[in-house]
Design brief:
Length: 286
């Protein structure tokens, strides 16, 4: 009887000591001061814009490649740390844990970006944690005996691109050009059985005005000064990202990829950017 009681007591004491250590570690301030600026940050409202003051507007779709060095603050850290998360982890937490955002489906064809298909929490969970078939093999013969379905979460490192839908607006009242982000969609690269890329697909769309409060309270890395951390809302509003145009509003409602490939598509993207620049220059040139 004593042989059974003594090991049990030792295990209980060990568990108690471990819990105390965890509690002590969680109360340690990892830094010299408590950061409160970004946690209590308010979203700056947009200036009021009247339809009568809009001289010209153009809808643009741009793609942000997180593998570019300038876009690394959106991609890293791959695993959340004490004071920072990647943009995808911020979005995932807001959708599945906080429930503060609504995701919109891409429609039956997978190309709808007009926020017409709001997704339920279960649908969002199935998108972010898809069920995949894992092959099972016989331990003796090594032959495949079947597939086992298992729910696997999409890794943060797998999201390397975002599609941004925005309106470029020229205001005659203030003689100013605004860029209003309308929506943002994380993109996942798909592969075939041989490991060859099949292209990117949009997981879902987020209505950006609903994202502003979440992004304004999520810190991003500032390579120049850790004491002046920026939020994801700051990065988007200050246009601190590198991107290329993949579509502009047109009579055919077609993307650039439907009529140009490779370097030709990049040249077409630069042509559209140049047209927007010249338009702004000509409008305000006296």
């Amino acid at each position: 009887m004593n042989r059974f009681i003594i090991p049990t007591l030792l295990c209980i004491l060990a568990i108690g000591n471990t819990a105390q250590l965890d509690a002590q570690v969680s109360n340690v301030l990892d830094g010299a001061y408590v950061k409160e600026a970004n946690i209590t940050k308010r979203v700056v409202p947009y200036p009021h814009l009247r339809e009568a003051d809009v001289m010209y507007t153009q809808r643009i779709w741009q793609e942000i490649d997180l593998r570019e060095k300038m876009n690394h603050p959106y991609y890293y850290p791959i695993k959340p740390i004490a004071d920072r998360k990647s943009l995808f982890d911020v979005i995932r937490n807001a959708l599945l844990v906080e429930g503060s955002l609504v995701a919109y489906g891409t429609g039956p064809a997978g190309d709808d970006d007009e926020f017409r298909y709001p997704l339920t929490p279960n649908q969002v969970d199935s998108i972010l944690n898809p069920t995949v078939l894992i092959p099972e093999f016989d331990l003796e013969t090594g032959e495949k005996i079947g597939d086992r379905p298992e729910q696997v979460a999409i890794e943060t490192g797998a999201i390397t691109r975002y599609l941004v839908k925005e309106d470029w607006i020229w205001d005659r009242q203030r003689s100013e050009r605004y860029v209003r982000i309308i929506g943002i969609a994380p993109r996942l690269e798909e592969f075939d059985d041989e490991g060859l890329s099949k292209g990117f697909k949009d997981l879902f769309w987020l209505y950006y005005p609903e994202c502003r409060y979440v992004f304004a309270n999520s810190e991003a890395y500032n390579p120049l000064n850790d004491a002046q951390r920026r939020t994801y809302e700051d990065l988007f509003q200050k246009r601190f990202f590198s991107s290329f145009i993949v579509k502009e509003s047109n009579v055919y409602d077609r993307p650039i990829s439907s009529y140009a490939r490779g370097l030709d598509a990049l040249a077409e993207s630069e042509r559209i950017k140049e047209e927007l620049f010249l338009l702004e220059h000509d409008l305000w040139h006296y």
